[in-house]
Protein 1
Amino acid sequence: MQESEEIPVNGKIDLGTRRLIVCHVENATTFYAYLESQKNFIEDIKIECKEECEGLERLKANPGLEQMVGVFSSLDKCWYRGKVEQLDQGKAKNLLRVRMIDIGWNSLFRSEDLCQLPDKLMLRKVLCEKYKMADLKPKGRADGYTAEDRQRGGEWLKRTIDDRVVISSCHKQVNYAGGIMADCMVRDINLNKAALKQGHAILIPSIMGNFQPKKNSAGNQNHMHFRGSQFHTQLQNSASFGNTNGTGSLDLDYTSYNGNSSFRGKGKNGSVGQQRPLLGQLDGKTSEVKKLEKKIHEDKKTISELKKTTNLDAGIKDISKLLDKVNQARGNDQDKEAKGNFILTGLAGVAEVIEESCYVAERFLMGIKAVETAARRVAEEEKMSVQDSLKLASIQSKSDLHRCINAYLELYNDQTVEDELSRVDSQLTAMNPNIPPGGKALSVKAEDITRENLLDVAEKVKNWIEESVTREAALSANSKKEVESLCRSFDQLSKGLLDKQNGNLKAEVPRSLDAQLGSTRQALQAELVGRTGGKLATAKKGKGKGTSNDMLVLKSAWKALTALKDQFELARRKSVEYENMLTTLEPLMS
């Protein structure tokens, strides 16, 4: 694939939108893929590998680290181009780990399964590339995830993609060779959000992710960049997930700058060591040393520039750039799509907010229920007689209450609640003018409204949008709503700061601008992908005035969002209340 000629902006090189055919899933956030236009390459290269390698003599000695080899796989009786990743594997230390560069999976082989790769195949370009979901990393051992858990995450992603085209907004990070960063969509599913919501990934904002840490998170292991990919279901089933045990599929992501590994040999203790300079090269500066010095100088300048740039600066630049692309994709007459449809304006983006926020709220509600149940048990026992056995029972119940409160306070995160409240409030603000006063109040307690109730409303909202307006109209309405919400947040920031400067200590300042920027960015990317990456729905007549059924959907959405808002505010109040309860309980537990 051709490298982008664009100049890096804030450590990133924009690669635009790509339609991808996935050939191997590594884990819940990482996969190998081809451009849709290159999907036939995998079969062509397999045929060519068989023709060139089948009659060659097998290797009698182990190849070197990173050496390109021909590989015969007994799993499907096919020949592949491979790259040696590890030596001395297996119990007997007689196996090699080799990655199939045209597919992405890796496995253990004997040297007898390999041959010297012919020059013709060496010169063939590698079209398969590695992709990672932007700002995410799969959960690992440090997050309490076992190898089996990671395998389940990979299987989830494979099922979700299900041989469909993945439409991705892609960028590269400077000096990072672990793959292309991507915001991925399959139909109307945002895979990045879905991986996070399913619990298979954690968020790692990558504003400084393009600079190598002093110590690799994988334990100082030398990592290499591998390209390769396309859907090959048989191989995925047999090999893609067969190497996720203790000896299996390694996430070889980090390299030296620009992926140019300077590690070639293997140390006495089995670790990969850096190649020593030849005698005489230390006195004068070789061309390699001069290149390295130049690179270090350039990197220092880049770091210096980045230090002058805040996350907010970067976010605003991204939004501005996306707005330019989206406006170009919309064309000249932007208002023709469901013009005046206040129902669409109110419902755009609501289903996604409900679906994602209800899972977060449910965890808090479960924690609250556990604490309240334990607190009632303590209260009931304190009202009973003071027999010794009951005193002991009361001590046990207080211990249970203490544990439940600690568990809730560990779960609770104030910034998460602020971010979710900001998203929900943004939707309610846009919807508010069209909801009659009598339709705003909830008829039941917010904490009694379940995740299933909320998801049912989200499904009705999605069905209404699919049946009533074009896909492009829905995407455009959501983008415009998010941009307007972001602008309101900046207005509130300006007003709040000025009020504080003038002595109003109670003035409120938005605390979720990062979340709002991210939400706006995702909405614009979704619209851009929808307009440039796939077929849009056939035209439907936009409804200028809401029918009675339309208004019912709008009111249901309002009540669902109001319930979510109340649930998050309850979670925040309970965190303060439980902190005070814990202060009272702790002396009794000592």
Protein 2
Amino acid sequence: MADPIPQFEALVAELFQGKSTNYSIILDLIQRNKSNEKELQRILSILIFYNEFLDSKCRTIVDAIIDVNWHGFQEEGSKSLYKKFFFTLLNSQMVHTQRFIQIQVSKFKSKMDEAEYSQMAPDVHSILQLLAQNQPSCTELILHTLENQFPYITVGTAVQFRYFEQMLRIIDFIPSIRSQVLSILIDRMLQIDANCPRDVVEATLETAEEMIFDMETMDGEAVPAPPGKPTPGEAERKAYIERLDLMMAAFFNFIKNTCFPKGEFDWQETKKLFKQLLRIFDNTILPANDCVHVQFVMFFVSSFRLNLIEGFINYCSNKYQDPSMPVLHRQAALCYAGSYVSRGRFVPKKVVISTLESMCAWANQYLDKVTHSVESLEYHAVFYSVTQAIFYIIVFRHRELFAVNSEIIGTLKLQRLVFSKLNPFRFISPDVARVFTQVMKTCEAFDCERILQQNKDTPLRISEAADECRRFLHNFFPFDPYLLVQSGVFVRPIYRLFRDLHSDDRESFTEDGDNEEEMLVEFIKTIDEHHRKAASVNARRWESGSSENHSFLLTPSDALSYGTSPGFQ
């Protein structure tokens, strides 16, 4: 019997002339030669000339070729031929486009070793790029497929993180979908972040710290820690935490690479990215009051320039001053503004002062206009949120403020706010009220102890409707310390910790008039080195198959050096 491959062209020609019995023969030849690169070259070379006939009736044949492991081809010419086949086919037979994109994107979820994956991923990107460049209408289909094929939240860390990284890389050659891709990725991180509440992360880090100490004997010699299998619940929590840590690190690194291509700050690209992330923040992060870490993407990207710092604060100001917004959204915007100005080492004194002036002006005007002058959280939730933000900022930044202007307390009319009939100390976080009182006493400004004691002696009764606002005020400090270890290298250098009132405050990152560009470049070089080391460790872990051992890449003790009170950790 003659070798069927040399007769392949005749079989194909006869098929399209009406000899339907050839269909199964052709399909069998393709299936049997999937691993034979030479024969596949011949098959593809022939089918290229018949692509106009490969309509929906030939889907099984086309699917068989889609499923070929073309990433393993030894010759670059074979890969080029594969791409050429599908490029010409999809130009004439778009019925196969969706299926082709689905199969290619699904390869990003492959559980292959690191070497094979590293060979496969660029090949998939190259063919998707070719498709997007020559058929712009396919970009929406690619985006839709990426979103639909995102691994489920409980899928293993290696699979999710690899897919996450590939989505970020697709932005490089399809920049038109960047905003949508970033929104999808942030939404996924928010889902995971909701499963990583602060107390759970702290407990997990404490366990990791204890395990490190258990590795040492009394004489200092390292010994293995006693074996202990985590409970299913503990293992799941650790998996979520590690997953989020890796994703946040990759996202921060994307921001850094976008804003600092080749190590040089690009203002135009940074401004464009900031606007996209701010829109995403407005739509997805601001309404989510159960997130602990994802909001730090705005903290990080806005730290690069004064215009961005002011842009984020102005966004929050416009939000809380808009009476048409839901009350909880206005409260959230104030929580973000207060926490951001307090915690950002990059926020200069002049911005702190202008923010306080704006907030105090609003609060004092509110007192001038208010008709329902009885203390009530239900009626005055936004006012109480404004005053809490003011007191919180002063607690963190009072040394700088009083060094600049010793009369600022009188200028801001703080005493009027504290002793107003609306009695903000009664409803704001007790910790904020207490520490603010200590600050005022230390600075010899005015005595708040009396109002604290009066509130303590009078029981508080609030309606169910106001209870959510109260819990929001007491517990939501969105830029409380960032706990994730690996991705924390992007945050820690620009983050202000709460210091004891009697300690020296040496937390300044930038002062008015400092050279922002030089400081930024040095900062980026530092986190680059940390990220390279972490990426190398991750690659070795995927290779060894230890992707689910949840071993933290840096010592967790740094992330645990905080207190336990919300807002002052």
Protein 3
Amino acid sequence: MFRRKSKKKSETESSALNGEHPSEVISDSEENENPPENSSNPFQRRTKSVEEPFIPSEIIKELFTIPVSPELKVITELSDPTSVVKDYIPTALKVLEWSLIFSLGYLGFSYAWIICLGLAFHTYITRKGSAGSKTELSAKCTKVHEKEIFKASLGLESLPSWATFPDVDRVEWINVIMKKVWPNIGQISKLVAKRLVEPKINEILKRLSVKSVNLEAISNFKIKDLILGSIPARVGGIKVYDKNTGRDEIVMDIEVIYGGDARVKFSVQGMDCEINQVNFRATARLIIKPLMDVLPLVGGLEFYFISMPSFDYNLGGMANMAEIPGISNMIRSVLDSIIRKGFVWPNRFSFFLPLESVTMLQKQGTLPSPQGVLTITVREGRDLVKKDKHLMGGKSDPYVVLNIGDRKVSFVEQYVDSDVNPVWNYVAEFPIEEPAGLTLNLEVYDYDAGTEDDFMGRTSIDIENIVETGSYEQWLTLDDTKHGSVLVKGAWNQISSAGVSLSSTRCVASVYIDSCTNLSTGKSTPPYAKCEIKVGSQQKKGFSTKPRGPSENPVFKEGHYFLSQTPSNDSINIQVVDHRTGALLGKVTIKLSYMMQLPDNHFSNMEWRLEGTMAGQTDATVTLSAKLYEY
């Protein structure tokens, strides 16, 4: 039924250990105009073939390779051509503004049209001014200590020194270094944007393609330039955790703040566009692992945002058309989805050095290990706002949405009809590997059939407080609304050291999909595959990996936690499907009772034969790891 995957050392790992560089280094064809004539140079670059896959690790290896012979480039900065007429621009704008109003009246437009256009223009200017003020504040913080800036604006002189941003906790020395090196990292940022970001965006556009519509070809998206500007990013603070962490890892939270004058110039269908006045704030978690007893001591890292970052930006050039209401919201929604699905917990970015010692550790087990399961019970609401108002009074049909990072549980199908004091008794469970720093967000909505549901308030709970006490029950007042509160109960269930057996009543199944081989659609074109995973029959919505391909041997390297309330009867059900057509490429079922008989309830990098494949396809397989935890 299954067979273990053979262990082979890759040639890349051997060359990395011996200090050798790969003979082939990929570079951007647009940047490589005059390649060196000396073919013996190990850093000589050649144009990337169309058939070669996009491999971020190879590009990163090339970008951060120190050249033997440094190149000297002189970059001149031209003066601003508008500086001559800068003093006359306000007068010209006023003349243009009044001429436009006169023309509208002359052409017979009513005052209503003029008022609407004026309001639209005012909204646009207000948004620009708001972003500009944030940029100006960030610029001041780079010249004057932020303590003085906030003292002048908020009057913090009466507070003790430890409350007014102590430098020890806020790592001001890192910001000083950032300010010094910021002008020097512009060129490498351009290369990273061109070599890593642009292919990734085109890959996402390719995934979004529907049937014969290729969004990548239609958009023809290209990054033309990245200008970091003079205002550097800042680190608000760093917290390193020494409790509830593994022995072979370092866990830290980094608050990243940016409100600068960076500009990104790109083109869509040959039209020049620009993103500017970017404002960004987020708490990023950096996990350095594994720690090794050989150089370079660190084998890799994982990175993700604890919660959804807050960010804003303005568009320039032809992209100004996207500021139209509706289009702007759609673009921001797509950007939110990209960030949330790619980098917000439990999603993450992982990077490991291609060393033999790291590879051996990964083969021993790449499964994330949960520390426990957080159980949340939303019992009832009290004095909620009435959103559905009518002549005889008002009502609401409330329900709750819970989320931690990108993991979201909605009870929209269990809304309470016409009640502002509802009794819900909603229950949700979240397996968590690093509870420190995470926040449970609770939002209440009014269900409206056929229209968008109305927002009724929100609140949040620090998960670390529940972990420390073990239990929690409290009435929480809803924010961003007139009135209302909810009764929430929480419990932290620690992972048990005892193994899962047939007598166990519940468990966590950790599943890690490595890759698939020999997939086929029955046609000449390879599939665009993804894996859909469910555990048990009660789970309505399972987990789906990101689509990979087109390839017959896609590599996923994605994992997820699943909860089982009947381990003796449940199974891990995996279906491999074509993302574009929905066709089934194969499936496999693994009973949890089989895993209970394995040592430590665990198997690693095991190859399973797929069933239900296309006619004549008998060698399609999926390689995965899995482990059971009792709580």
